[in-house]
Amino acid sequence: MITSEALSMHTDHLVFNSPQSVRDAPGRWLRMAVKRYSLSQSKQAGSGITLFFAHCVGAHKEQWDPTIQRVLELQQSIDEAYAFDWQTHGDSAVLNRELLDPEKSPGRVYGVSVLEWAEAIAAFASSSAMRGRRIVAVGHSAGAGAMILSTKYLTSPSVYEAIIAIEPTAISHEMFYQEIDIRMSTMEFVVSATLTRRETWRTREDAFAWMRKRIPWSDWDERVLQKLVDDGLEATPEGVRVKGDRRQEALCYPEPQPHFETAALLANKSISSKVHFIWADSEAPLVPLFVQDALVVGAASTSKVQGGHMLVQEKPDELAVAISTILANRIGCISFRPQVSIIT
């Protein structure tokens, strides 16, 4: 008889100093907020898989919570998981607010490139706390690019046992300029929408109700939307507001070079052979099929999840099953747990 098992998920909040940047004054560096997840019955650290998670532009680390919880319910072989906030997003944005102020820090007038985030993730992966770990890096959209780009800063690609890239927005230089007018028009629309997006409400309840009626949030899983309201907003004397500065977020979009570098890295067999792609099974994919086909050459595997580009936000349970299947079938983890629920 199969019995049900209940496990407790523990979380800790960490702050990691990013590598020194030439954009900042000597002795000043950006900080990266990190959330650690572990189970009450986890194995001794280092004997199983350690998962890394990186979010998309405009998101924050807690939006991974429902996916991570489901992966931990499904898999027996996870030691722990870490989710990272881009230095301009979520709790990182709060930690770095003064240093990101262009009036106080002229070097930050153009924000924080995904390359800097990738370097910080690589530094975390190379830290003494991660020595000997079996790390699987998971990223969504720009976060997938960050995980792939982080291999540039590692002493060896073997630091990662695998990379799971969900809807990566990488593209080659040549393909980008084939339809430059369409791409620039799309980018300008997204930047404009970001800069004019509402970011303050009287209460968290008001914010939830307002978002629930509007695209894109109306398409989100309710648990992820609640995470945005609970963890992506901060209290102010007037009510609540988004933690990240929308101007900093908008600066993430017009920079194509990281997309080119990600595509170039994927052309390297030592990298591509470690990458497992998960694409949205959509009639109107954000990443065109011909771009997907070019990126997956030499990949470890490809799979699809029904839904749109925002799979983390819209389909966390289905995405968790896809991630767990890769871990079980492709990376050699122990198979799925029978019937498990996690108490948070």
Automatic annotation (TrEMBL):
Alphabetically, the GO molecular function entries are: hydrolase activity
Keywords associated with the record: Hydrolase
Q: Start and end of every AB hydrolase-1 domain?
A: 51-320
Name of the protein described by the UniProt record: AB hydrolase-1 domain-containing protein
